[in-house]
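Inverse folding, one chain.
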């Protein structure tokens, strides 16, 4: 599958870039950016190998550093120095900070929230970057200081983010940082004139710079310099069905090379286990190919045997039990999640999200807008007859409810399950969840008991 380049860059795809290098037309610099970490790293490896094909030469003519330790002056010195061995020299910086500014804060916050559960240490690193860009200091946030940041202050710090849900994710990230006492942040100089001059003609023809970044401000002068002198490729995660399609195309390509195929049930099981995360999904595919041996078709049982039970499975079971008002199953699943080490605040986030979706579905059903909806209708009819109406805004300029942006099957389940609740019950449940969330953050009450009380109230007959 071709990896599309950013529209403002001169490159068009990874395949095009590799063909140029093979044809002797290597660019002096390459910028690879985006939040799809697996594809970005894969592109970096392929470009490096294309520039320096011989592994022995690569050991001496390849210099790689991390953005946390990048020094623009040292970078320019390296680019202006001839390689140790005849041939090409490559200087690479992973996760550079050179393209960051306040314009990347909103996507940075979105990534912090996404990573909080799966990779809290990376989320903490992202938040330190957030602090560096905004000027926030650890002393302002610790010991409950984050509560003093009101909506007006937040909008001044992050103009492109409304601060929704800040009271949920901000204390979690502060707690993570508090367990790893952060070092004082260093001031960062934004002046990169020397690097720009170097790229515009101040380095040997066989020297090349490769930078990777998760987010970039395209208005920066350095970005325009890369666009004028090199290649810029973008690797951003798809959402919903687009994300699933990307994973499917790459997974099927791997399977086809090995003479294997994944059944429809196996594909569904894989998605449930990995959430269609590209790295996890492709890693699981490699394991499955080895596991099935001579067998050509991979079935759901193979996926279960190789990947096993995950926290995601248990979270799915908890929200499913909550929507079904199955108290016994909900309490058992809660106990399993807590025993697995999942933070109580993360469980609260999942419960609140589920009840909010049910409440939104209930309000839409009660509005009378969805004429064709029936609680017992099948998924296919729901997609054709009801889903388009859910995605339509009520009035011009008004956004559809959050549940409408989810995968169609998630929307379908929310509307079916909403029939088990009254509108008054769901409103009361949201109020209970808000109070419990506050209690978890501000009191010494046992989190397990607080969460059990929530489940007993929501699943109980009232």
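Residues assigned per position:
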């Amino acid at each position: 599958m071709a990896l599309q380049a950013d529209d403002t860059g001169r490159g068009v795809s990874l395949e095009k870039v590799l063909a140029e290098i093979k044809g002797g037309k290597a660019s002096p610099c390459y910028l690879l950016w985006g939040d799809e970490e697996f594809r970005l790293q894969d592109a970096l490896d392929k470009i490096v190998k294309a520039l320096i094909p011989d592994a022995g030469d690569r050991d001496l003519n390849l210099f790689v550093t991390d953005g946390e330790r990048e020094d623009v002056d040292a970078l320019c010195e390296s680019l202006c120095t001839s390689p140790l061995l005849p041939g090409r020299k490559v200087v690479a910086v992973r996760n550079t900070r050179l393209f960051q500014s306040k314009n990347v804060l909103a996507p940075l916050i979105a990534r912090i929230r996404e990573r909080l559960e799966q990779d809290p240490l990376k989320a903490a690193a992202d938040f330190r970057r957030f602090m560096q860009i905004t000027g926030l200091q650890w002393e302002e946030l610790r010991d409950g200081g984050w509560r003093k940041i009101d909506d007006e202050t937040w909008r001044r710090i992050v103009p492109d983010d409304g601060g929704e849900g800040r009271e949920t994710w901000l204390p979690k990230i502060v707690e993570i940082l508090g367990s790893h006492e952060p070092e004082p942040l260093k001031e960062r100089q934004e002046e990169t004139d020397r690097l720009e001059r170097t790229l515009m003609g101040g380095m040997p023809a066989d020297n090349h710079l490769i930078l990777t970044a998760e987010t970039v401000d395209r208005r920066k002068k350095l970005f325009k310099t890369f666009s004028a002198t090199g290649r810029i490729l973008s690797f951003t995660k798809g959402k919903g069905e687009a994300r699933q399609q990307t994973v499917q195309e790459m997974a099927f390509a791997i399977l086809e090379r090995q003479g294997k195929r994944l059944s429809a049930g196996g594909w569904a099981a894989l998605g449930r286990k990995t959430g269609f995360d590209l790295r996890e999904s492709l890693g699981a595919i490699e394991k499955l190919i080895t596991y099935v041996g001579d067998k050509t078709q991979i079935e759901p049982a193979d996926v279960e045997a190789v990947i096993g039970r995950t926290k995601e499975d248990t979270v799915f079971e908890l929200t499913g039990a909550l929507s079904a008002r199955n108290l016994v199953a909900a309490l058992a699943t809660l106990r399993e999640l807590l025993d697995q080490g999942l933070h109580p605040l993360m469980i609260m986030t999942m419960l609140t999200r589920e009840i909010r979706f049910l409440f939104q579905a209930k309000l839409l059903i009660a509005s009378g807008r969805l004429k064709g909806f029936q609680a017992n209708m099948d998924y296919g009819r729901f997609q054709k007859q009801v889903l388009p109406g859910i995605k339509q805004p009520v009035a011009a300029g008004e956004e559809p409810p959050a549940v409408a942006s989810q995968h169609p099957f998630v929307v379908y389940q929310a509307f079916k399950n909403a029939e088990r609740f009254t509108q008054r019950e769901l409103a009361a449940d949201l109020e209970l969840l808000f109070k419990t969330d506050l209690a978890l953050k501000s009191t010494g009450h046992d989190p397990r008991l607080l969460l059990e009380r929530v489940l007993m109230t929501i699943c109980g007959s009232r």
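The chain has four domains: 14-100+190-234, 102-179, 241-308, 338-459. The domain at 14-100+190-234 is CATH 3.40.50.300 (Rossmann fold).
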